[in-house]
Amino acid sequence: MLELDGVTAAYDSTPILRDVDLAVAEGEIVGVMGKNGVGKSTLLKTVIGLLEPTAGTITYAGTDVTTATADERARAGMGYIPQGRDVFPTLTVEQNVRMGETVNADSDELLYDVLYDYFPVLEERASQQAGGMSGGEQQMLAIARALVSNPDLLLLDEPSEGIQPSIVAQISEDMQAINEDLGTTILFVEQNLGVIREMADRCYAMERGEIVAELGPAALTDEDAIAEFLAV
Amino acid sequence: MPNGLNLLFQFLDSFAFIVLAAAGLAIIFGIMGVINLAHGEFIMVGAYATTLANLEAGLPLPLAMLVGVLVTAMFGLVVERVVISGTVPNAIGRRVLGRDVVEPLYDRLADSMVATWGLSLVMVQGVRLTLGNSLDQIGTPLGKIAYGGFSYSSYRVLLAGVALGLLAATYLAFTRTDYGMRARATVQDDDTARALGVDTERTYMTTFALGSALAGFTGALYAPTITMVPGLGGSFLVEAFVAVVVGGPGVVLGTTLAGGLLGAINALFSNLVGTFFGRIALLVTAIVMLRFLPDGITGFLDRLRQRRQEGA
Question: A8 by DSSP, 3-state: which?
């Protein structure tokens, strides 16, 4: 579904990603873990196309999208949930979700009913400004916004950041259910050990812009093996 | 009583002039972060196209005004592609030199001012060279309202209604349409908008064309009331600029409040001391506002709202 081959990216000639190889198969939930500042968010920005790689290729659904713009990739079926959610504060909750209708241009069905089932608060507060919601509610809103037109691949940047632990667990469960019910392939980055173990089928570990390890389902049950990559 | 009516008409007149002069400029500034110093010349294009369509081509006035709007919108579209987004020079650059030659002017206030000021000079001189120093003028339609020893042009009263209608239409366009929703999302966070499949460049292009169409509309509306000279945009630009400074980045609310406040100040001073002092009072207001509310009335309201949300 998604393949990165030797991807290198830089901000103002400072390299942030070095020679990243990564593959996600259809239907998988793949995690990328690493401490703050190792380039996790940059990796997702490069996949969605907000940052252009200086070397390497990105293949999505069999097509080379390395030079495609972010809006083209979104319309081709990539949903993206940025770090810190980035809901549009002065648009209403409903308008925020509607903004996701431009994602996955091929889709002719919109999933309002499904998503309002998962996150009833979004329907209850549909006409309120999104900026007034709590962090957890904004995260739900960003998930609904990215999923409303049923994209094939979801890119999820640190879902647990700044959110109460009880809601973090809820969101991890919801993401797994969405993966099963809708068949959405998920690539997420995270530094919360619990979320990684809970959600990921398998996982990559990042350090200083490089992929340094790949952990299969067995290794993911080994808490010490994971903690090694997240230790401060 | 006649004096009260005088003041009211003067207020309506100033309010309409400020709102209509500012609307296009405010939209382009609020959504794209571009200050179009050629805005007055866009109004001139609308006024000239309307006048020529009416007097030379013989179209009835409402149709001639529509021509004025469309010509200015098309002109704005070309300016956006060539000067503001740099798409055309970059396409040529890539073909000839193998690289881009300019960066888009979006969100570059000072750079966009220099570029569009240059454009305004070219436009004024271009029109002077091709069409001469003045055009015949369309007569003001609709006659006059008489009261006491005074009379007032009905058409100018109508303009106040048009200004209110325009504000309402703009409000609906930005809150109720898909274009408006995408434009507001793009202003708030253009990266996220793009990552959600919004072609932000097209949103900017549409916005500039819309702002230009509004400038053309203003030119068309005022064509029957002003002298047709190539520099006619100058007086519109001053009022529009002051209104945007005072109103801040909120397009509809900012323009409405600025139009109301500045219209009242202008009418009061013009009525009491004379037109010249009315204009001076406008500029003094702008300076005072810049000192105390540097991001305008709506910028100030935004900050208040943010503080309340953080406190909550």
Answer: strand
Task: Give chain A positions within 8 Å (CB) of B195.
Answer: 48-50, 70-71, 74, 80, 82
Q: State how far Cα B35 lies from the chain centre.
A: 10
In a domain, A216, yes or no: yes
Tell me, yes or no, whether A187 lies in a domain. yes
pLDDT digits (tens, 9 = 90+) for A148-191: 999 999 999 998 888 888 888 888 999 999 999 999 999 999 98
CA distance A159 to A34: 14
Domain-located, residue A121: no
Bridge partner list, A22: A4
CB–CB contact B195 A70 (8 Å): yes
Is B236:B221 a contact under the CB 8 Å cutoff?
A: no
The interface predicted TM-score (ipTM) is 0.87
Expressed as residue numbers, the domain containing A185 is 2-84+152-230
Residue B274's SS3 state is coil
* Within-domain flag for B114: yes
Domains in chain A, number: 1
Q: Alpha-carbon distance A97 to A146, whole Å?
A: 8
Facing B196 at nearest CB: one of A90, A131, A145: A145
Kindly state the tokens that stand for B304: 């208040």
Hey, how many other C-beta atoms are within 10 angstroms of the C-beta on B80?
Answer: 28
Per the structure, the count of domains in chain B is 1
Q: Residue B189: its chain A contacts at CB < 8 A? A: 86, 88
**Predicted TM-score (pTM) of this structure:** 0.84
Q: What is the pLDDT of residues B180-235, one digit of tens each?
A: 999 989 988 889 999 999 998 899 999 999 999 999 999 999 999 988 899 999 98
Helices and strands: H and E segment counts in chain B: 13, 2
Q: Which H helix or E strand runs over A57?
A: strand A55-60
